[in-house]
Structures are given as C-alpha cells and as structure tokens.
Amino acid sequence: MAFHTVLPKIATSWVINLYRAARKLGSNGVPNYRNSCATKPSTGAASLCTIPSAGDTTVVCDFDGGLLRSTALFPYFMLMACEGGSLIRALLLLCSFPLVWILGEHTDAGVGVMAFVTFVGIRPRDTDLVARAVLPKFYMERLNAHVYDQLWLPARRKAAVTSAPRVMAEWFLKEYMAADVVVGRELQMVKIRHGCYYTGILCRPGPGMRQKALREVLGADGAMADVAVVGTSNPLNHLFIPYCKELYVVSTECAKTAQLPRERYPRPLIFHDGRLAFLPTSSAMHAFFLFLPLGLVLSVIRISICIILPYKISFAASAFFGIRFRTSGCPSTGAGAKPRGVLFVCAHRTLVDGVMLAGALQKPVSIVTYSLSRLSEILAPMKTVRLIRDRDLDAKTISQLLEQGDLAVCPEGTTCREPYLLRFSPLFAELADDMVPVALDAQVTLLYGTTTSGRKWLDPIAFLANPAPSYRVEFLGPVPRDQTCAGGRTGVEVANWVQHRLGEALGFECTGLRRRDKYMMLAGNNGVVSN
C-alpha cells in the first residue's frame, strides 16, 4: 500500500482514540476547564476576564503564563547570566537560543540547556543577589492584574509552580507575593576548596518531582486545590489536573491587557540593581550586542567632551553626540556679595549629577560624596571631596568648602532609580542658610548608570553608553528664610521641607529609607567602596 494512502488512516485512528480518551477522562471527574478570557464585556470599563473571586480557597498557580503575562523563560535566564555571571556568559546563552527554541523553552531539555549555560560555575551567593535585587523588578512589571487581583490575592493558601530553577523565583514569590510554597526545578551543587558552586545540571528532571511537591503542598490525605491557574502554551499544564477542582487557562489576549499598575504592586518597588534597563529577550539582546561596541565609543567621546571642552560649547557638542539635556529655573539666591558660597541641594540619580549641575551653571562647582571609586574621582571635571561619615569632621569639611565658594551636596547619600526620594540627612541644613534645591532626573533605555553590588567605576561609562541618555536639571529657587535654621527651624524640619519640595517638582514620593537600607537589601553591606 502506498505511503500517502496509509498516513491519513493512521491520523484518523489517532484522532478517534484521543476523542474517546477525552470523553472517558471527562466522565471520571476531571476538573472543569475554564478560559479566563472567554468573553468580552460590551463596556470598555469592565474587566476582560471572567475569573470569579477565589475567596477562602487554595490556589495553585503556574508562575510562567499564569501569574506572569508571558510564558517566556529565556529573558530571566539571560538576566541571571548577565548580572550574576558576565557579558561573555550572556553571549554564550544567546548563541544557545536556537537550540533552546528547537527543544522548547519549557521542556526538560530546553530548560536544561539554559540552566547549564547560565549556572555552571556560579556561586549560590551570586544567584541569590540577582534573585533578590534584579529579577523582582522585571517580575512585577509583568504580573497579570486579573489573576493577581481575583485569584491570587484573596486566596488563603498559595502555591506557585515554575518551569525554571526554584532559586530564580522563590525569593520574589515568598517575599513579594506571599506564596506559601514554591515548586520548581533544583540545581546540583558541588563543594570545592573555595566554596560551593552550581554545576548547571538539574536534579531529577521531569514531572515526578513536581507531582511529589504538589502532593506535599496539598497534604497527604489526598486533598485537592480549589483552583489552578495555567498559561496556554505551557506543556506542563497537565500536571495540575489530578490536584485541582477547577482549572483556569489564561489566554494570550487577556494577558496582553492585564498589566498591574505600579500603585497596586504587592510591595513598593524602590530599590533594584543590575545594569540592563530592558527585558533581555533574544531579539533585544541581539540588538544590544550589536550596539555595544558603538556605545563604548560614544561613551569615551562623551566623557572626553565633559572633561576637555569648556562649558559654553560642551552642551552643543554633547547634543551632537546624542545626550539630551534640559535645564530650567534660576540658580541665583539674590543680589549682592555673600561671605559664603551657595549650597546646591540636589536629588541623587547618577554619578554624573555633579557634571550636569556644573554644565547647567556654566561654571565648576565643588561636590561632596560618600563612596566613590578612585577612577571616578580622577575623571571628574570638578573638585570632589569625600566625606567619612563622622558627623563632626564632615561638618567641618562642608563649612570649609562653603567658605571657598559654591558647593553641591546630595543629602540622600546614595542613588535611587525609581521615582522615590530617600531620607535627607539634616547635616547640610545646619551648616548653610543660602540653599537652592536642584531637581535632577536621568533617563536611560539600555544600561543603568548606577550599581550597588557591581563595579562603581563603570557607572559613568555605562550611563554615557546609552543611545540617547537624557538629563533634567531644574533650579527651584532659594529656600525661604523662614524655612531655614536661621528662621527658627530645626535641621530635620529644613531637610524634610527641601525633600518634599524636590518631590513635588519631580513627581517623586518621599520616603524615610536610608542609604544603609538600600545596600543591606541589595548587596548585604553598608555601601563602603574600598580604595
């Protein structure tokens, strides 16, 4: 018999057998399937999803495609490889993407390839830092608002299942999402002379491990979860069927329109680390590596412009090479000669704040800093003076600098990427009455110009390597006399007034968090850079 006549008969037999098996499973108590976006209401204000409220229930949720709006795993492996490893490791992972695409991102083989390239030779401490300081930002920006609000948030007991290694998602799910249990793949480790390292090999790959973990979550008495939420394209969805009463499938169309607003995040996103300012999909990383050599050349040219050229022509030259700069307001504190210099109180966004301030003033101005790398001090086109965190000695240093001329200070003591202002130290308010608040803000699209656990000497290079970095400098005018210590205010009151004034101008939220809070959360230290 000819092959082209046999093939249709085999296909027909498979279809009939699959139909009979589906009917048999349906009659034996298979959980109900419901599409979370089965209907669209006629009014645009209504939710696109038809998920009922979970109430006092147990929810088992697929993290990739259920809680998150996308099922893609590759971008998060790329973040781990780049931030926890190096650019070379990230490039190797990008080269392996064609193989991962053929095998499937969620298959054991596909995840095994990504896990090996990403984790082999990396210390657990490095992966923990990335999982704690880098990944939560990208996870929260891609949470599914419908699933989070209607199923996850009201549930009494919450379990999350991920196709990626558990170390990548566990910290976020437990600290931010209040998950009771996180089920994921495990990585093998080897202990050698200098500590523990990941081998990149997955422990016991396959569905058996996840089924055992789900049974432990629900209890040994055969209890079932009330609701399970899965994505549409995850091949592991069938693992949820024996352990849930109802199964909801989140459609791709619903996920695209279900972004969770920042004000409804489980926790405020104030601190995060890492260099990459974009989600590193395969196409985005391909474009990144193509642009990186040009970006480094642009960075060297832009740094040279700031150091060599006079202020009057440096702005035009910088604009020609792609830097967007906008200044507004009047920096003057009044007419007449003053015995001391003016204290410019600035929001702190990047290490080039002082350079941009001096460019807006069209004259050099001294600046005091805390932890700054020696290379940054050498390259700075203005005078930089390091404070030593001794209140009396720092007050004496600031007073001497004000006697010599104008001075810039960042009372936050560290940078913050998100629209928040950290607590202002009151020391500056006790030492000067002629103060001008300066609202500074920086925007990037490729690389962040700040780091907590990385190499600080790369900060200005990374910021100026962006295709079109932008800076905003706004002078808010002198602080009124009655709002200074000379007008009867305390240092804390003056610092809080200046902080709120800057927050209003920038549209940022004021917080009471300190520099130490940031570094202890992101790097596990107090933020001191050794010489």
Automatic annotation (TrEMBL):
Subcellular location: Membrane
Chief localisation class: membrane
One GO BP annotation of this record: cutin biosynthetic process
Keyword annotations: Membrane, Transferase, Transmembrane, Transmembrane helix
Domain of life the protein comes from: Eukaryota
InterPro entries: HAD_RAM2/GPAT1-8, Plipid/glycerol_acylTrfase
GO cellular component: membrane
One Gene Ontology MF term: glycerol-3-phosphate 2-O-acyltransferase activity
All residue ranges annotated as the Phospholipid/glycerol acyltransferase domain in the record: 342-443
Annotated coiled-coil segments of the chain: none
Protein family membership: Belongs to the GPAT/DAPAT family.
Record-given protein name: Phospholipid/glycerol acyltransferase domain-containing protein
Organism of this sequence: Triticum urartu (Red wild einkorn)
Gene this chain is encoded by: LOC125522938
